[in-house]
Each structure stands twice: as C-alpha cells, then as structure tokens.
Amino acid sequence: MSTCLVTGGGGFLGLAIVRKLIDRGDQVKVLSRRYHSCLDGLDVSFTAADITDAAAVAEACQGCDTVFHVASKAGIWGPDSEYEAINIDGCRNVIAGCQKHRVPVLVYTSTPSVIYHPQAKIENIQEDIPYPTQFECAYARTKATAEREVLAANSAELATVAIRPHLIYGPGDPNLIPRVLQRAKAGQLPQVGDGTNKVDITYIDNAAQAHLLAAEHIQEAAGKAYFISDGKPVVLWSWIAELLRLVDVPPIKRRLSLGTTRAIGAAMEGVYKILRIKTEPKMTRFTAQQLATSHYFNISNARRDLHYEPEVSGEEGLKRLAEWVKATGIDNL
Questions:
Q1: d(CA 122, CA 239)
Q2: What's the pLDDT score for residue 82?
Q3: Confidence band of 278 (pLDDT split at 50, 70, 90)
Q4: Model pLDDT, residue 87
Q5: How far is the C-alpha of 177 from the C-alpha of 173, rounded, in Å?
Q6: Which residue, 16, 23, 30, is CA-closest to 1?
Q7: Which residues are catalytic?
Q8: Percent of the chain whose pLDDT exceeds 70
Q9: pLDDT digits (tens, 9 = 90+) for 29-44
Q10: pLDDT of residue 136
Q11: Distance between CA atoms of 127 and 164, rounded to whole angstroms?
Q12: CA atoms lying within 13 Å on the CB side of residue 318
C-alpha cells in the first residue's frame, strides 16, 4: 500500500486519479483550496490549502510515496500574475515539499500546449519537439516553465515525470464539453476552418490511468515527458457533429475561415484587455488556431515506457459522454 497526495484532487482529472488510487488500495491525501462534495464518501484525507502556500504544501507532502501534482490554473484568459503564482510558484512549492520530505516520486500533470506554436506543424509528433520561444497565452507559457522545472528536478532522491494528456473529456467534465454544447445549442458555435483538421482527445479514465502508470514505471519514465491520448486522432468537426447528433442538438451551419476567426479573436482580446473584462472572450487567437488546425501526437514512447494502452476506446468514450450529457441535461452541465 502506498500513500499518495493528489493536488487538485477535487477537480475533473484529480478526482479520477483519486478514485483509481483508492480502487487499488492506496492511502490517498487530497490538497485543494476548498472541499469538493464529489469527495463525499471517498476514503481520503483532505487538506484545505492554496497551492501557493509553501508551508501547507510541504506539510501535505510529508509521509507520501508519490505526489501527483494536478492542480493548476487552466483556461486561456486571466491576469498573468495568477497563472504565474499558481502554475509556476505553486509547482515550485510542490517540488520543494517533495525534496524536503524525501518523497521519491513526483508525477506532474502537464499539457501538449507547452510545445504549441501556431506556425508549427503538429501532426504525429513526439516529445523531442522543442518548446517554442513565444506563447499565445499565459497558460501554455507557465505550464511550460513548470514542466521544465519538474523535469530538471529529477534526481536519485526524487524521480519526476510529466504527463501531457490532450483535450480530456468524459462524464463529469465541468468545462470543455459543456461550453461546446451550450454554444452549439444557442447557435453560437461556428465551424472554424475547412473541417478536416485532426486532433487527439483523451477520455478521462485514460488520462488518469496514464498518471498511475507513470508512477509504476518511474524507472523508465524519470526525467521525461509523455503525450497521452485515446490512441488515434479524430476529425474534430466530425467528432463534434456526431456528439451533437447523439445528444439531439441541431448541427452546426455557420462556417468561418481561420484567418477571419483569428482576427475576431485578436479584436476581442484587445477590447477585453482595454476594458479589463475578467471573463474569457468567446474567441481568442489561441482558441481559433486550436479549432481549425491539426494537432495530434505519437504516443509510442508512452506505450513503450509506461506500458500505456487506452483502457477506454474513443468510440466507447464518446458513447459514455453522450449518455452522461443526456442523463444530466445540457442546461445542467
């Protein structure tokens, strides 16, 4: 039996990791800013603390065999200072806590966004692609800095690994799928680009599974980053169209070019910054690029080193997602 800490254990991915750890018989500690009702009934030890609180983070790391650092500020809009405090300083606190209390394994939740650049061709790429010199959003920039520092901290005393799941989806998703469906239902989701772009997606159970495998196979994985997905890319707009069909939402009729959408995104970013609007714009340059271009990854390194094979197929994942959406109701997501 291992003792594991999951930062952000009340979130979408964190909770899935927590449940898998409990299922295999581990003792689980969760650190989060506030208690989440989804933890009710689960055998976990809970610490309410901000990831930027170095002392609290270090205390939570004490006695752990593995730390899964999942907590982060996601999204693509907000003050740079918040992204830096949570994603960079918070990660440094986790590294320091692991080092102080001699935690042997640190698994860091990263993102493929750390290597994303709008001019790069991201098709079947592997982890040797370099970090870009410029980023279009603070999220990608700060996650890249954190990933670098996690991997640089790898040592004989603390083995570190970074997991890069792409576009996590599934039942319980609080953000990605609800936004897509609500905009589509309201007629506010245009197809961006020609509709042929392929992307990788990752079912929630597969993303969680990869984290546990990384810890299990840390001798092979230490000091490395790994792309994770469902194993084969989907044609993004065909996948969205099928999801809309399964949940009885009318199909998308409006189409915009990438150039037009990027221009709209740039304009909206400018207005939001000038007016200091805190909510995320409905379109940004980064979002436009993600919606219109291909970005999928070769996961052969994860298959080799982590012995990773998606436990849920993309077809089954879509089926489970649609069933959850229909049972919950789009307006209640």
A1: 19
A2: 94
A3: confident
A4: 98
A5: 7
A6: 23
A7: 139
A8: 100
A9: 999 999 989 999 999 9
A10: 77
A11: 10
A12: 16
End-to-end CA distance of the chain: 36
Judged against a pLDDT cut of 90, whether residue 293 lies above it is answered with no
For 73, half-sphere exposure in the C-beta direction (CA atoms, 13 angstrom radius) is 23
Q: How many residues does the chain have?
A: 333
Q: Does pTM top 0.70 for this prediction? A: yes
Tokens of 306: 């982590």
Query: What integer pLDDT is reported at residue 117 of this predicted model?
Result: 79
Q: Where are the domains of the chain?
A: 3-169+201-230+297-311
Instruction: Note the CATH number of domain 3-169+201-230+297-311.
Output: 3.40.50.720
